[in-house]
């Protein structure tokens, strides 16, 4: 298989767990995976003909946190999009166990797992949070809330960026820019995912050399391409329109996680022939039907950087009210009104080399108050009395 054109590259997290997880975990994992695929397709609409990295986990995590504080139509839209609610029996426990199963050994004395996940909630010091929201957040994510002084934007930005950098092994720097914390910022949710894995079947470095890589417009450019002949899980599939495409699996050491690569067989077929039909069920079908076969795999050696604005993709999936100062209802999060999500964003960095893969994602959601709350009481007598 020559991956000398645009292809889908995905590191599987949730799907690996689905096979071995208990029934409740399977329920949550499947729905999380389904949401991630649907959101990926929406994000892709805003990044046509561009290289794209995307991590569904950070968005799923943020929406799960927001569920705990949302009410009314805002809550309904989040639950309808995720297709599960935290009030469902055992869902909160399942989310926590799912996170632990993915990265539970990161800080253990045993052989560390290749995935590290962290979630952080940073609130303005005087923002009153409801007891119910605090309990739900701490029970689900096993994290304490951190207080930050957002009225000092520079200091707050440094604190948040340092948290992301330390939880992504230094790969994601400056997630928040200089203008990311306006004066009315009241709360910021952060999620960090870091992956580091070695191939079971590494590429020989001596085989890496310049080869043509074909862009979606038909042009090509010379890039460093790795090559290896080995036995991989592999299969060929056909789209509903009759287009053939290949899928190959590259396992990482430990065999809990793997990379799936899907690419159209013909150079003239756009990648959208696959992405438009992508579902969690289709990915599961790939896994089931692949067989061991000896193949020559030629793959670009690359480094990818992506920045994604999540507001429009989430809006197209039906999550709209939480972004509106007039309609957002987070009355179960805080007594302060109005609170709404003013920004949702993600940065991705991914490196694929002969020895393996390093990838990190930082996701942030900023909640803002529409009304400025002055600190202290001030009386000005600027006119004659």
Query: Helical proportion?
Result: 25-40%
Alpha-beta classification:
alpha+beta
**Total DSSP E strands:** 12
Residue fraction in strands? 25-35%
CA-based shape:
elongated
Instruction: Quote the average pLDDT.
Output: 83
Oligomer: single chain
Region (Disordered): 356-385
Domain Serpin: 37-384
Pfam families: Serpin
Organism: Hymenochirus boettgeri (Congo dwarf clawed frog)
Structural features:
single chain; 385 residues; alpha+beta; six-stranded antiparallel sheet; 10 helices; 12 strands; disordered C terminus
Can you walk me through this structure?
By secondary structure, this protein is α+β, with helices and mostly antiparallel strands. The protein contains 10 helices and 12 strands. It has helices at residues 14-20, 23-45, 56-69, 72-82, 91-103, 131-141, 153-167, 272-275, 280-289, 311-316, and strands spanning 8-12, 115-124, 146-148, 185-198, 209-214, 220-238, 244-251, 258-264, 291-300, 302-309, 339-352, 356-369. The strands form 2 sheets. Strands 1, 5, 6, 7, 8 and 9 form a 6-stranded antiparallel β-sheet that branches. Strands 3-2-4-12-11-10 form a 6-stranded mixed β-sheet, sandwiched between helices. Helix 1 runs antiparallel to helix 2, helix 2 (23-45) packs across helix 3 (56-69) and helix 3 (56-69) packs antiparallel against helix 4 (72-82). The longest helix is centred in the N-terminal third of the chain and has 23 residues, at 23-45. It starts with 7 loop residues before the first strand and ends in a 16-residue tail after the last strand. Residues 11-22, 105-109 and 374-385 have low confidence and may be disordered. Residues 356-385 are annotated as: Disordered. Keywords: Signal. GO terms for molecular function: serine-type endopeptidase inhibitor activity. Residues 37-384 form the Serpin domain.
């Amino acid at each position: 298989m020559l991956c000398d054109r645009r292809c889908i590259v995905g590191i599987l997290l949730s799907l690996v767990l689905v096979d071995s997880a208990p029934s409740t975990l399977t329920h949550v994992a499947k729905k999380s995976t389904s949401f991630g695929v649907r959101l990926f397709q929406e994000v892709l609409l805003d990044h046509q003909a561009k290289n794209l990295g995307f991590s569904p986990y950070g968005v799923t995590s943020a929406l799960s946190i927001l569920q705990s504080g949302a009410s009314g139509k805002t809550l309904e839209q989040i639950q309808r999009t995720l297709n599960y609610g935290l009030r469902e029996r055992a869902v909160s426990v399942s989310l926590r166990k799912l996170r632990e199963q993915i990265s539970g050994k990161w800080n253990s004395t045993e052989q560390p797992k290749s995935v590290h996940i962290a979630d952080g909630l940073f609130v303005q010091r005087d923002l009153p949070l409801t007891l119910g929201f605090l309990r739900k957040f701490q029970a689900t994510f096993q994290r304490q809330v951190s207080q930050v002084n957002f009225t000092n934007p520079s200091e707050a930005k440094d604190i948040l960026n340092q948290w992301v950098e330390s939880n992504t092994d230094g790969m994601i720097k400056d997630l928040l820019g200089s203008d990311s914390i306006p004066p009315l910022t009241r709360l910021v949710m952060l999620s960090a995912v870091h992956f580091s894995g070695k191939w079971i079947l590494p590429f020989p470095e001596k085989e890496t050399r310049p080869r043509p890589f074909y862009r979606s417009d038909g042009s090509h450019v010379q890039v460093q391409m790795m090559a290896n002949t080995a036995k991989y899980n592999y299969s060929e599939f056909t789209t509903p329109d009759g287009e053939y495409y290949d899928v190959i699996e590259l396992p990482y050491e430990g065999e809990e996680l793997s990379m799936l690569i899907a690419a159209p067989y013909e150079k003239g077929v756009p990648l959208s022939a696959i992405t438009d039909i992508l579902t969690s069920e289709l990915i599961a079908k790939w896994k089931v039907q692949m067989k061991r076969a000896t193949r020559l795999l030629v793959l670009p050696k690359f480094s990818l950087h992506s920045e994604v604005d999540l507001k429009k993709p989430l809006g197209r999936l039906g999550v709209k009210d939480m972004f509106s100062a007039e309609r957002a209802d987070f009355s179960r999060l805080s007594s302060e009104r109005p609170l709404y999500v003013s920004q949702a964003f993600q940065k991705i960095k991914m490196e694929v080399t002969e020895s393996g893969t390093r990838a990190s994602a930082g996701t942030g959601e900023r909640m803002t108050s529409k009304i400025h709350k002055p600190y202290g009481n001030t009386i000005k007598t600027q006119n004659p009395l």
